[in-house]
C-alpha cells in the first residue's frame, strides 16, 4: 500500500513502525490532496492534520486517528501566536489577555528542544508535550529519513510557581522568542530548561549524527 504525506517527520516515524508500507510525497491544499486520493490510484491513504479536516466539516473523511504512540507531532504544531514588536509594552499588555498558560509552557519547551538540536523543517524532529498535575512532560525524538535510526526520550519538570510582579528591566523577557506576561517567569524558565536538557540528552546519544545525515540526504533529493 502507498501512503501519501508531505511531512518528513510523519513519514520517518511511520516507516519505522510500518516498514511494509510505501510512502510518497503529496502536495497541495486539502481539496487537492483529497482529490488525488479519490481520483487517482496512486495512494491507498493519505495523512493529514485532523484539525484542518474538522475545521472544514469533513470529519467523515478521517479513517483513523494517529496518537502519540504512532506519530509525534511537529514543534509548536497547532499553537496560535500573535507576533508583535519587541519591547512594545502597550501591545504586549494588550495581547497578554489571549495567552493560554498551558500552551505557552508547552511551546517554550518544544522550541527550546528544537533550538538546542539546531533542527528545522529539513530533518525529522518530533515532540509530544503534556502538562498534568503541575508537571510538564516532554517527549522528543529524532529520526533518519527512512526511520531505521532513531532516538526518543522523555523528561519532566515541575512548573508550579506563583505569579510575581515582574515589572521593571525584565518585564519583556523572552523565552525562545515567546513573551508571556501573565505566565510566571520561573515556570517559563523551567519549561525552557526542560527542552534544552532533553535535547542535550539526545545529542549525547548521537542525535547530531542522525540529523546531519538526514539533512544531507534531504538536501540531495
In short:
Pfam families: Porphobil_deam, Porphobil_deamC. Pathway: Porphyrin-containing compound metabolism; protoporphyrin-IX biosynthesis; coproporphyrinogen-III from 5-aminolevulinate: step 2/4. With about 220 residues, the protein is an alpha/beta fold.
Describe the model:
A three-stranded parallel sheet has the order 2-1-3, with helices on one face. It has 221 residues and is of the alpha/beta class. It is built from seven helices and six strands. A hairpin with a 2-residue loop joins strand 4 (125-132) and strand 5 (135-143). Helix 5 runs parallel beside helix 6 (185-204). It is globular and about 60 Å long.
**First and last CA, distance:** 23 Å
Main pleated-sheet profile? 3 strands, parallel
Instruction: Provide the structure class.
Output: alpha/beta
CATH-wise, what's the superfamily of the largest domain? Porphobilinogen deaminase, C-terminal domain
What's the total count of β strands?
Answer: 6
State the CATH class of the largest domain: Alpha Beta
CATH topology tier name of the largest domain: Double Stranded RNA Binding Domain
Average pLDDT taken over every residue: 91
User: What multimeric state do the chains show?
Assistant: single chain
Low-confidence stretches: none
Order of helices and strands: EHEHEHHHEEEHH
EC number: 2.5.1.61
Pfam families: Porphobil_deam (PF01379), Porphobil_deamC (PF03900)
Enzyme class: transferase
Organism: Cettia cetti
